[in-house]
Amino acid sequence: MANVEMMMTIVAISFASILFIIFIMEIMKELMKKPSETNMTVFICCLTLMLMLAIMLGGCAKCINTETSTVQVKVTNAYHKASYTTMHYSPATKTMLPQTHAAIYKITVEYDGTEYDIRGRDTYYKYSDSIGKSVNGILETKKYDDGTVKYNIVDLE
């Protein structure tokens, strides 16, 4: 499902980029009908915008492979902050309204010299008393077409 959403996003961005390029080309055609110094400045700005757009769209690395594996990680910290409520003034209703802030449950683990935060109440209660101990973690390895490899601990077993 995530791949479908990503493809839809890419198609939408591509479509918007094509419309933007067509818009810039129309502006450039109009400017070329009546050459002047101001029009040439706008023309150069439009060319610069098109070049920047081409560089931005062409510079994205694409994930070509994602693997998961089980590795040993060390639990280094457990953090919990209870939910709380604050009041804020609403100018529309001229009253004070409560705003509830969600609780935070976080376990910090270390793998290969890098710390990763795993969030979630169940994970917190399961591993909060395991500080300093080694546990099994799920390592996600993403490989990109430009040769880069990124690692992330996504969950604990």
Instruction: Give the CATH class of the largest domain.
Output: Mainly Beta
Number of helices: 3
Largest sheet at a glance? 5 strands, antiparallel
Helix content: 25-40%
Gross CATH architecture of the largest domain = Beta Barrel
Number of domains as seen in the coordinates: 2
User: Termini, distance in Å?
Assistant: 24 Å
**Which structural class best describes the helix and strand composition?**
alpha+beta
Q: What would you call the quaternary organization? A: single chain
Total count of strands: 7
Instruction: Report low-confidence residues grouped into runs of 5 or more.
Output: none
Mean pLDDT: 83
Order of helices and strands: HHEEEEEHEE
CATH topology of the largest domain: OB fold (Dihydrolipoamide Acetyltransferase, E2P)
Basic shape:
flat
Which band does the percent of strand residues land in? 35-45%
What is the topology, as strand order, of the major beta sheet? 5-4-1-6-7
What does this protein look like?
The chain is an alpha+beta fold and 157 residues long. The protein has 2 domains: 2-60; 64-156, OB fold (Dihydrolipoamide Acetyltransferase, E2P) (Beta Barrel). 39% of the residues lie in helices and 42% in strands. It contains 3 helices and 7 strands, in the order ααβββββαββ. The chain has helices spanning 2-33, 37-58, 121-127, and strands at residues 63-81, 84-90, 95-101, 104-111, 114-119, 134-144, 149-156. The strands form 2 sheets. The chain has a 5-stranded antiparallel sheet with strand order 5-4-1-6-7. Strand 4 (104-111) and strand 5 form a beta hairpin. Helix 1 (2-33) runs antiparallel to helix 2. The longest helix has 32 residues, at 2-33. The radius of gyration is 26 Å and the shape is flat. The two termini are 24 Å apart. The relative contact order is 0.15. The mean pLDDT is 83.
